[in-house]
C-alpha cells in the first residue's frame, strides 16, 4: 500500500506521526479515524496544511475501505486546501488518490485526467516518490481504458523507483497493480484468440502478484497482502491450478486483522469460483450467497452485480434453473442500475468540480475584497503590510501621505464631499506609473516604489503628487474647497528593515505637518527643525 515517504508527508504540530505508517501496515480503520482527528484538530486551529493532510489520509482510507464517493469528496476538498497552501506536492499526491477513487466509481476517463494531472506536477517537481505513485494510477487508467500494453512500462518504472528507495510498502502496491495490468492484457489477448500469448501473460501476472505477496508480508501491509492473495487465487483458478488457488485463499484467512467489506466480498466471490470448479457446488453457492448478502448490506451495486452473477452461475451448474433464472434477472436489473449510477456519478463529479470552482472563485473574490479598501477601491492596510513584507532586503522607497486639515473639510463641506476627496486622491495616486498605492486608514495613504531607478526619482515623484493634488480643481466638488497633502519619504539603505523605513517615513510625515504642511520631507534635517513644534502640538489634522 502506498504511503507518503517520511520526508514528504506534510508535518504539523500535535498531529499523530504514524498515520501513514498505519496505512502502510494495512491498519486502515485506525488510520481512517486518525485522519479524521487530524483534520478536526487542524480545523480548530485554522491550520490549512493540517486540514489537507487529514482529508488526504481519510480519502485514501476510503479508497482502501471501498467508500469511493465519500473519499472523492474528501480528496477534492484536500486539493482545494493544498492549492490554498501553495503545496504542489500535496496537491499531486491527492490528485493521484482522486484518480484511484474515480476508477473505483467506474469513471475511467475522469480518473485518467486526474492521474495525468498528478504525473505532470510530480514530474515538474522532480519528486520521484509522488511520481511513482501517480504513474501507477496512470498505468491503471491505461489498463482500464483498453491500453493495457502501454501500462506495463509505466508501472514498471514505479516498481523501479520503489525498489531503489527500499520502499517495500509502496513496492507491494505497485507489484499488485502490475499483476492487475498484466491480467487485463492477458484477458484482451485471450478474447482475441491468442490463447498461447494470453497464458504467458497470465503466468507473468501470477509471478508479479506472488512478488507482491512477498513484499506485503515483509512490510507488514495486510491490506495489500489480502488483495494480492485474492487476485492470485483468482488467476490460479483461471489457469486451472485449483490446489494453489485454495492454498492462497487459506492464507488469506490467516492474515491478522479485520478485512474491509470490499475485501471480504472479493474473497467470497473468488472462493465461490474455486469451489465451483472443484465441483463443491453447495459450498460454492453458500460462499456466493454470503458475498451477495454483504454486498446488499454495503449497498454497492458493483459488488451486488458480481455476486449475483456468480450465484446465478453456481445455480446453473447445480441445475437449479429456476434459481439461476431468478438470479440472472436480478443480475440484469443490477447491470441496468449500475449503468444509471455511472451516469449519475459522472454528473455528481462534474457538479462537485463545478462547485469547487465556484468556491475557489468566491474565495478569491473574498480574499481580494479583504485586501481592498471599501471606500476607494485601492489596496488597504492589510495589503500594504503584505506588500511591504515582500520588499524586505530589496531596494525600495516608501512615502507616507496625509491629507491636510481633512477634519475641517468634513466639518465644513460634509462627509460626502470628504469621501469623494479620498476617492479622487486614490485614483490620482494609482495613476502614477511605477508607484503602488494603498490607503492605510482615515486620510492616510502610502506609496511604494521598487527598483533603483524608481527610488532615484522618488522625491521628484512625491513632489509631482503634492503639486497635482494642490492644483486639482477641487471646487468642482464644492466652492472654495482646497486640498493639499503632506508627504514623508524614506529610501531603503543598507541594514534598514521595512519596519525601520516605515518609522522614518512616518517621522518625516510628522515633520512635513509640523513645518507648514503641503510639502515633501525627504531628509532628517526638516525633522530636527520640526521637533519643538511637533512636541508642542503633535501632528495635527
In words, what does this structure look like?
It is a single chain. This protein is mainly alpha-helical and 541 residues long. 73% of the residues lie in helices and 6% in strands. A 5-stranded mixed β-sheet has the order 2-3-1-4-5, with helices on both faces. Helix 4 packs antiparallel against helix 5, helix 6 runs antiparallel to helix 7 and helix 7 (128-144) packs parallel to helix 9 (168-191). It is elongated and about 105 Å long. The model is unreliable at 1-17 and 533-541 (pLDDT under 50).
Strand order of the largest sheet: 2-3-1-4-5
Uncertain runs: 1-17, 533-541
Please tally the β strands and state the result. Answer: 5
**Number of continuous helical runs:** 23
Secondary-structure element sequence? Answer: HHHHHHHHHHHHHHHHHEHHEEHHEHEH
Radius of gyration of CA atoms, rounded to a whole number: 34 Å
The major beta sheet can be summarized as: 5 strands, mixed
User: What would the principal axes of the Cα set say about the shape?
Assistant: elongated
How far do the termini sit from each other?
A: 68 Å
Mean pLDDT: 85
Broad structural category: mainly alpha
Please report which band the strand proportion falls in: under 5%, 5-15%, 15-25%, 25-35%, 35-45% or over 45%.
Answer: 5-15%
- The helical percent reads over 70%
Key features of this structure:
single chain, mainly alpha, five-stranded mixed beta sheet, disordered N terminus, disordered C terminus
